[in-house]
Amino acid sequence: MVGLKEELLKSIWHAFTALDLDRSGKVLSHNLCTVLNVPHDPVALEEHFRDDDEGPVSNQGYMPYLNKFILEKVQGNFDKVEFNRMCWTLCAKKNLSKSPLLISDEDAFKVWVIFNFLSEDKYPLIIVPEEIEYLLKKITEAMGAGWQQEQFDHYKIALNTSREGLSAWELIDLIGSGQFSKGMDRPTVSMAINEVFNELILDVLKQGYLLKKGHKRKNWMERWFVLKPNIISYYVSEDLKDKKGDIMLDGNCCVEALPDKDGKKCLFLIKCLDKTFEISASDKKKKQEWIQAIQSTVTLLRAGSPPPHKEARQKRKELRQKLLAEQEELERQMRELQAANENKQKELETVRKQLEAAAARAAEEEKKRLQTQVELQDRFSLELEREKMVRQKMEEQVAQKASELEQYLQRVRELEEMYKQLQDALEDEKQARQDEETVRKLQARLLEEETAKRAELEKWHLQQQQTIQMTEAEKQELENQRMMKEQALQVAMQQLKQLELERKEALEQYEEVKKKLETAANNTKSWKDKVAHHEGLIRLIEPGSKNPHLITNWGPAAFTEAELEERQRSWKGKKATSE
């Protein structure tokens, strides 16, 4: 009933949209109730349109009333052709083209009904190019002409560029213009339209003259047979005015070929539950066609399938819907890809701007780096020059210290020689010699320590000279070593100062020894004879109080008396320990 309702709505839509004065649809409702055999309720109609008279788009419009009070009551016991003709009568006058057509008004009506069958289930109604091609092919085949695919392709391209499809009136104009039926006369076109109308609208699967054997008289009479999805009707002639009977078909029916008998050829038998019909065709080809057509119809009834043309229409719609869904999905994917592409473009633009900004920053940083490098090079050059000057001054100072150290060493050697002479002079004075020997050993030990320190200083001085001659790549490391050696030198200088202090203490101790030596000199008469040729040495050990400083081979005031006393106590302690 849903499919029947949709088919009825299409014809009613044409009739309703053609109304001008009575847009409420009251007149249309009366006519519909009449042709559809539905009881009409004028009171319900007036009640429905009591507050609103604005047509089917309103809440109280015509379509709600049509669905509730008319279409829901349709039982299917009405004449479809009469229903369509009533709707056609209401809309044709207003919409049918006034230009002359190659088809009659009756043929235009049939094309209009076919349009309602093939059109899409959306409003306003249109027929898509695929259905137009299907219809034109059917008409061309019915005329026995060849199909011009290339011509229709050009027409389809021109149509697709401007609209989705044609309205019913545009389809009538297209077929009536003879664009796809050139060379065919008007009766041939009319016959083809009628054949397609019978197949698509009246569900005529096959029709033609056959001989039928009577059940009572057993005579053979020629009848016009019409095969439909569930019935075979036979008439006196093809004008369908005098109907003689029906053969009801169902899944239990079957058709069988019969051998020739009683002078009749091309026989076949139709078996039903209650009756059996013997039929004779004019030739073997028609016999086979009828047997095959009836068998196909029974097979469809057993499977519960719709007629072939309706099933084909449904498959075409499903295919179009599938293609439309795929196209929409493809468009959606294209939109997503386009959006993604736009996003990528925006991201690339953002990345490009970031790269440009990064390049600008890098250029600025490179500029700053070069400037900083130049400044560092200038600063390094200045520091290098300053370092060279400092190194040169240090070399001069080291050379000066080396010269002073050489002089000092020479003096030390002279003092050692004088000390030896003094030792020889004091041989006879044993006690004095022992004391002198003690002091001399102390002085020798100090001298050795100082000599070792001086040698170490000389070594460090030589290493500093070698360091100065090294390459620029090792400069920093050598500079660190030089600093360490300078620190060591400072430590050595501090130790040297400590030795100087100890020497002063030894000198002070030596002062006491000198006093003892003076005492010994008074007792020794031969002292001056032994050391007469050493005038300087005589002055060193000559007693007297004029010079308060102690004079040794280390020089004046090399040791203080306290230092000499401390060293003397240390020596005596060591001697006692050894004994």
From TrEMBL:
Domain PH per the UniProt entry, residue ranges: 203-299
Keywords, sorted A to Z: Cell membrane, Cell projection, Coiled coil, Cytoplasm, DNA-binding, Membrane, Nucleus, Phosphoprotein
Superkingdom of source: Eukaryota
GO molecular function: DNA binding
Signal peptide boundaries: none
InterPro entries named in the record: EF-hand_SWAP70_N (IPR057836), PH-like_dom_sf (IPR011993), PH_domain (IPR001849), PH_SWAP70 (IPR057837)
Annotated compartments: Cell membrane; Cell projection, Lamellipodium; Cytoplasm; Nucleus
The protein's name: Switch-associated protein 70
Taxonomic source organism: Elachura formosa
